[in-house]
Amino acid sequence: MFDREYFSLAQYTIGGGTTFSCHLMHKLGRKYILRIGKRLENKSRYFGYNIFYQNVPLDFIDNVKRPFVTDMFRKFQVLPKLERENVTIVIHDPQELFSIVIPYLKGWKIVNIRKTVQDWFKKTYDIKTNFLWHPFYEYPKLESNDKTKYVSISRIDFDKHTDIIVDANTLLKIDNLPEIEIYGTHNSIYTYHKLGFNKFHEYPNYKGPFDKDFQSLNKILSPSKVVVDMSAIKEDGGGTQYTFLEAIYNNCGLILNKKWTESPHADFIDGYNCIAVGTGKELYEKIKEIESGRIDIIPMIENSKKLMERHTNVDWSQI
Known about the structure:
Elements: E1 2-10, H1 16-27, E2 32-36, E3 45-48, E4 51-56, E5 64-73, E6 88-90, E7 109-112, H2 115-125, E8 130-131, E9 149-152, H3 162-174, E10 180-183, H4 188-193, E11 206-208, H5 214-221, E12 224-229, H6 242-249, E13 253-257, H7 259-262, E14 275-277, H8 280-292, H9 298-304, H10 308-313
Parallel strand pairs: 1-5, 2-4, 5-6, 6-7, 7-8, 9-10, 9-12, 10-11, 12-13, 13-14
Antiparallel strand pairs: 3-4
Helix pairs in contact: 3-8
């Protein structure tokens, strides 16, 4: 019988849940995480950000006294194995709670990484959850004094509202201003129906996905002046997310969806530690003001750094 093992039980291995799992493993001094496969494998595979995973069969969970689930999305076949005591699970946002998951909630020790989601659990299910800040591993980074680019490093999807960035780029191009380079995997349904691109890879400002490692992040963020992130999820917000933390850690300014500044638990304040916008035109206008010198983002970058300590020092071994 094993005491505590960490499982990533999501269908995917991209996005914030995977990034969270990797940062957590680094902070806990672990080099691997477990995933559910058809059989026990003796070899490890690359998970991301210098963390590896090992496939184990579903029954392996029975041999772990205190399973810790870092991320779970659509892996519904594992639910019967989690109907037991001593299960800790991180639920990142309300989108993870499909109806089939709801009956299991009151039996779990649930951890949330944003207070807005913690409030939502109490209001919706009358469940008291635990709250801890995102863990952030201070990986080696590149330093650059030549920071000129505007970039987006989120997935291209409905909840990321990449359409706002595309709209802004159209206006920026007309005025011969720096356009926003878009990185990340894309949802072809979203890019076709919402953005109007049959082949999004042909969009000039789309630079494609990047490898899940700190070196690739460094190459994108080191020469970047500003990270643009239009993400917004219903019943979520307040606090932060990894794209924000990565921007701050790499001395980039932040332009965010204004919903992050409107949350009851908002840590980002427009004009203080970020710039908040809601439309492509507003985004265009703010970049125009930065480029003209009417907006100084340096004080905002310094103010945003005040948020980092809580993420670098949070102790997840206590949970």
